Amino acid sequence: MRRASVWSIAAVAAHLVGWLAPVVRDYAGWQAFRVALGPLWPFAGAALPTLGLMALGVASAATNLLFAGGVLVLATRLRHRVRMRTLAGALVVATAVNLLWPFSAGQHWTELEVGYYAWLASFPLLALAALAAAPARRTSRP
Length: 142
Fold this sequence. Notes:
By secondary structure, the chain is mainly α. It has helices spanning 3-20, 29-36, 51-75, 84-98, 100-104, 114-133, and strands at residues 22-24, 27-28.
């Protein structure tokens, strides 16, 4: 099995755990996703309390679209049309965005549960898959 495939499988597995396992309090990942998208798609009366958290929520939720697109690229012939290093860089930026949640939680950061950490880990894992799928760099040296 190719290294890119191993990293991709690990990333998808971590992402699925993140969607199904508790992220914070009684919210599974998919519920936290809906709360994060609350400004655009309200969910069960739950809302993020500040404009900054709302912006972070929408940006963080959007990283899931990048993840899904990255998986699609790596799993299909699209990987020959997309620059893998660019995809990896975008996934690193997504990781940085998603790393803001513990900081935004302040003293409540300890309430983040396994689902958050699995979901967070899925982004650098997929970045590693993209790097493993990247063509070798050519040098001018013989």
